[in-house]
Amino acid sequence: MIEVSPLQDSELAEVAALFNLANQDLPYFWPLAADDFRALVLLNQGEPDAVLSADPEGWLVARLDGKAVGFVHCNIGRLATEDRAERRGFIRMVAMAPDHETAVHEPLLAAAEMHFRTRNVSHVTAFDVHTGYACPLAGRGMLAGHHFPVMTSLDRAGFKINERWLLYERVFDEGPIEYVPQWTDLRLTVADRSAQGFSIFLSQRAEPLAELKVLFLDELSRHGDRPSASLRNLHVAADYRRKGLGSWLMQRAANDMLARGYPRLIVSINHLDAPAQGLLISLGFEELPLSGYSFVKQLR
Fold first, then answer.
1. Domain residues for 40?
2. Residue 296's pLDDT is what?
3. What distances in angstroms separate CA 10 from CA 34, 43, 54, 111, one per listed residue?
4. Does the N-terminal peptide bond of residue 289 adopt cis geometry, omega within 30 degrees of 0?
C-alpha cells in the first residue's frame, strides 16, 4: 500500500535519485547529490522570478514497503510580477519510480491537493515556467511534453494545460554586429549590471520603447559545457515592433554577455508568440526538440 507524508532526512538520497531519474533526459541537466538537491531544489524559493515558501510539509514522498517511490514538491506563494497579496499553490516537480507510476500518481497528487486545501489555497499551478530550478531546463519550470506519465497523472487529477513553451539557444563564438536603427534621440541604457546579470532599456525623448533582461546561470555554467545566460524578458512597445529595436537589443545583449564571459544565451517563449520565434530564428537561434507545458487547477 502506498503511504505519503513529508520527506524524512534519511530519505534525502533516495528522493534525489528519483529527481535525477525523472530529469536525466532533459537539456541542461546534471545529476544532483543529496546536499545539492536540498540546496537547489528543496530550499529554492523561486528567486528572482517568484516568491515562494520553503515549507518541509510540502516535500511529499510516496513510499512502498519503506522505499521512496514518488516525490512531489509543493510551494505556496506568488510570481515576482504579481501583487503582494496574491497567494496560490505551485507544484514544481513530480517524480515517480518507473515501476510504480500507476500505483503512485493518485495518492501522491491527492496528498499534494490536501496540502494546499488545509492551507486555504484554492488555485494551483503545476510546472509554472517561472518556478524552475537551476537544474534542469536552465531554470525554467515547464514539464517536458514527452514525460507522458506525469502529464497523464496531472490530467487524471483534474489539471488542465494552461501554456505551452519552447526553448531556443544560441552560442555566440564572436560578438554580433549591432545594427542601430537610424532614429533621432534614441537612447540605450544598460542598467542593473551585477554578478547576476543586466538589463537594457531603450527610449526616445524619455519615452520607453523597449527593454530586455538577462540572467546569468551560474550553477549551469559551473556544471555544464560552457557559461550560459537566460533571457528573462524582452518587450518592445506595440507601436514600435518590427522596426529593428528587438534585434538591436539582442545584439547588444550578446556583446555584453561575451564581454562578461557568457557565450550561450537560452530563451524560453510561449509557443503562440510567433513574432518572438521569428526574431530568434533571424538572429541565428536554434529551437531545441522539446515542448514544455504548464497546468492549472481550481480547488473547490
1. 3-164+292-298
2. 98
3. 10, 17, 19, 21
4. no
